[in-house]
């Protein structure tokens, strides 16, 4: 009876982990509000230094922030597996909020890179990786759905935080906004960390029977070394790069695209950014849930087909607002799908015991897409004066993603 009662208590308690972790992810997702800060920060630094910086000149800050996350997702995953998530999240909270605070005191670009780019970027990896992997461990029966919810809260930050930050910037100034948000993030993240507990080893939720270990369904627990020695890991990593490429490419340029391609005003283009963020969030929840029903790889195939359709709409939009919105929505949904599916997908394939580290390593695919997606779009636009070549390149990658999904299925059949 004791064991049964304990299982029931833990099964109820795990939802508290989701709520608190989701709140922490909303804070960490504020890293993607950089576009709100970039222009006013460039103006502020110009006044201080007499330079002629632009939002484009400060793009390096966001590039650094987006690229360093996997470092702490992996190292934080090791600490999480050894000591539990509490201290990883506490340190991440100090570093994330501290990065915003330092940005508020920045008087030049290097200080901004150190604060927002390095400190908050590294902390994001700790908070996101730890909170997502720990929540997924609590739900072996609903990995896809919980992975979707957890990554959706991270994406939801792009909808919630920008208007708040923008209001602060307009009324108090950009440096004050950085400082206030930094203090709030330190408080929420550090206090929240003390309510997070690690999932007990071999936890089985009340009323759920884990799949039996058979020849066709073998035990698949692998640490990072075992995962890296498994060929299917590299196929999964490549699928993630192909899927995230178009989403991160569009996220970096959505406002400019709306103004250049369909002649929107800056205010109307801001709505496009919100629509992209909302479909990104929807894709994470819907596809995470669907992947529990029909399988991860089948859901990924559907997501890639939606991306191809969306990119085709953008390619053909040519001033058509409806087609442009449709394309933005479809690509945003596909990107969200990848992000929602992959925490559970990684745990399914390599086990949940070491998923904190394994998912951190897998997340390198996201970082690569975040580095090359926006960079490729900028280069193609500069050479051609059009976004069309970037859409075509992304469609090719999406088709490659579909083909890689077939390779994954063939490799899985051979294993069984």
What does this structure look like?
This protein is globular. The protein is an all-alpha fold. Helix 9 runs parallel beside helix 11 (296-317). It contains 15 helices and no strands. The chain has helices at residues 2-28, 34-49, 59-83, 85-104, 109-138, 143-172, 174-193, 224-228, 231-262, 266-294, 296-317, 321-350, 355-362, 364-384, 388-415.
Concise synopsis of the structure shown:
The chain has helices at 2-28, 34-49, 59-83, 85-104, 109-138, 143-172, 174-193, 224-228, 231-262, 266-294, 296-317, 321-350, 355-362, 364-384, 388-415.
List keywords for this structure.
single chain, disordered N terminus, mainly alpha, 416 residues
Topology:
Blueprint: H1 2-28, H2 34-49, H3 59-83, H4 85-104, H5 109-138, H6 143-172, H7 174-193, H8 224-228, H9 231-262, H10 266-294, H11 296-317, H12 321-350, H13 355-362, H14 364-384, H15 388-415
Helix pairs in contact: 1-5, 1-6, 1-7, 3-4, 3-5, 3-13, 3-14, 4-5, 4-7, 5-6, 5-13, 6-7, 6-10, 6-12, 9-10, 9-11, 9-12, 9-14, 9-15, 10-11, 10-12, 11-12, 11-15, 12-13
